[in-house]
């Protein structure tokens, strides 16, 4: 190949890479071609290698976008979680959830227990994995979801919002029970949960056992109907112990415990 021909080929590849919106092909094809010549690859092997670079980069870019759009307050991973602080949480059960099969089956995951015991960390970690696996994920607190639903209802756009949220394979509802929910808002939240029953997955965290969800939602009947749908296809984990954020801090833990007991 003459130098002029080589330059023309480079220009054509660069143009085609831009036209296909495949910048990694444009930047990496020459280096891969050198490897192919040294290794006596077939044409098919070279083509597969070039396409693989672009496909991998696109997958990673898509994952980053889904994670960003999910609205996680912080990015937490399962690998970062210290399971020694929660011996009641079976690492094997969490590992099975990391495969993502439960989302395909529209299952749910529930983390119950005191504040500061890692519920949000595990919920976020599973959500991040789901986003990397290609699922659409959205995260908010229970109060945040209630605000969204109430605002949509007041604008006459509730059906549109619920339809939009049904396009997400996984919704994460954090901190159920931290803020009391009025009856009208509880009914809106019930519509969200009911609409996802056997159609889409939920991860929920709560500081209250299911028996006390009536206190949070202000209506025992609505709470019971909601719990019935949530737990039907759910993996439920119960966290124990004291908040890791204050455990071991000398002089802080006793005063916090005493204050809670006083109230």
Automatic annotation (TrEMBL):
This protein's UniProt keywords: ATP-binding, Nucleotide-binding
According to the entry, every stretch annotated as the AAA+ ATPase domain falls at 105-237
Give the matching InterPro entries. Answer: AAA+_ATPase (IPR003593), ClpA/B (IPR001270), DNAC/IstB-like (IPR028350), IstB (IPR047661), IstB_ATP-bd (IPR002611), P-loop_NTPase (IPR027417)
> Highest taxon of the source?
Bacteria
Q: Which family does it belong to?
A: Belongs to the IS21/IS1162 putative ATP-binding protein family.
NCBIfam families the record matches: IS21_help_AAA, PRK06526.1
PANTHER family the record matches: ATP-BINDING PROTEIN RV3427C IN INSERTION SEQUENCE-RELATED, CHROMOSOMAL REPLICATION INITIATOR PROTEIN DNAA
Mind telling me what this protein is named? IS21-like element helper ATPase IstB
At the highest ranks, the source species' classification is:
Bacteria, Bacillati, Actinomycetota, Actinomycetes, Mycobacteriales
**Name of the gene encoding the protein in the UniProt record:** istB
């Amino acid at each position: 190949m003459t130098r002029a021909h080589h330059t023309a080929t480079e220009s054509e590849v660069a143009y085609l890479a831009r036209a296909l919106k495949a910048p990694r092909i444009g930047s990496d094809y020459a280096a891969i071609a050198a490897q192919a010549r040294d290794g006596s690859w077939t044409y098919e092997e070279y083509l597969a290698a070039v396409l693989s670079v672009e496909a991998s980069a696109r997958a990673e870019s898509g994952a980053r976008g889904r994670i960003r759009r999910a609205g996680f307050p912080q990015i937490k991973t399962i690998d970062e979680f210290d399971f020694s602080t929660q011996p009641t949480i079976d690492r094997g059960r969490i590992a099975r959830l990391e495969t993502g099969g439960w989302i395909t089956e529209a299952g749910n995951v529930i983390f119950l227990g005191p504040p500061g015991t890692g519920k949000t960390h595990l919920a976020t970690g599973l959500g991040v994995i789901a986003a990397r696996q290609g699922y659409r994920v959205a995260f908010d607190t229970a109060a945040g979801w209630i605000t969204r639903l109430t605002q949509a209802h007041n604008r006459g756009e509730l059906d549109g919002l619920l339809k939009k949220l049904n396009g997400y394979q996984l919704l994460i509802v954090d901190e159920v029970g931290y803020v009391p929910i009025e009856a009208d808002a509880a009914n809106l939240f019930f519509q969200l949960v009911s609409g996802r029953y056997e159609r889409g997955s939920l991860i929920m965290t709560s500081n209250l056992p299911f028996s006390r969800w009536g206190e949070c939602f202000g209506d025992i009947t609505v709470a019971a109907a909601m719990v019935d749908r949530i737990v039907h296809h759910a993996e439920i984990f119960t966290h124990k112990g004291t908040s890791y954020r204050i455990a071991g801090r000398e002089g802080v833990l006793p005063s916090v415990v005493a204050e809670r007991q006083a109230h």
